[in-house]
Amino acid sequence: MLAISDLHVGYARNRALVEQFPAGARGDWLIVAGDVGERFADIEWALGLLAGRYERVVWVPGNHELWSHRTDPLTARGEERYQLLVRMCRRLGVVTPEDPYPTWAGPAGPVTVAPLFIGYDYSFLPEGATTKEEGLAEAVRTGIVCTDERHLYPDPYPSREDWCWARVALTESRLAAELDPARPTVLVNHYPLIREPTRILRYPQFAQWCGTVKTADWHTRFNVAAVVYGHLHIPRVTWHDGVRFEEVSIGYPREWERRRARFGSTRQPGLPWRVWPALTPATTSMPPGAPVGLRG
Ligand SMILES: [Fe+2]
Ligand SMILES: [Fe+2]
Q1: CB under 5 Å of ion ligand 1: residues
Q2: Whole-angstrom Cα distance, residue 249 to residue 237?
Q3: Distance 18 CA to ligand 1 centre (A)
Q4: What fold characterizes domain 2-284?
């Protein structure tokens, strides 16, 4: 099973990169952990292309898919936009967080893949801040404000954090009810579910747009074999409480091109890589190549 995220196909160079993805081997699934693009037609193009190259594609939304950007003819906002993305995925045969969790029968035994749509609620506060208001004030003061504030609408929820909390409640009960505790699970979300991976950010105040403290123990509660996420644009493997966390993003052209130049062919940045069965940590670890982009 392979994974990739943050394709950002609005960039011509990323679009060309995705066009050149090798087809999966027989039986390969591809996890796409969000930020495929911003415009609905771009997202549909990329997921359609990938659905033709892998036995199954599993997608979760990133913040960019949820933008209602002025350049997108589709003007739907928030939950309505998300549901239109889900409907488009169903047309393409792509699995979404709204579908039953599928089980992949690979050579290392069956593993359930749980695609999640959990956003952020500004609870990864910057140092010294005790409330969301204080955290955001610090972000404004230092000029590190996520572009979501302009383009990501939570309609019909009153705020992005209300939308996030509704998803947390819904998802937590689904995981408890639907997962087989005897079978390993791969959790997939655009954000890392725990705060630790965000500690590496060049601008720590950006962590406010990277997750929620409400999912801090999920990787220890559901027989989780791995957590696959993106958004940070810092592809690497870290371990938390004995669980492997894989950041699988491509990022913007300047980011993956710089990594390619630096790391050569050992683990090609900008291509899907295997998350199950696990590669050994020694070959999967990749030092951070670049600071996170401000738009995640
Ligand atoms: Fe993102
Ligand atoms: Fe991204």
Answers
A1: 35, 62-63, 231, 296
A2: 12
A3: 17
A4: Purple Acid Phosphatase; chain A, domain 2 (3.60.21)
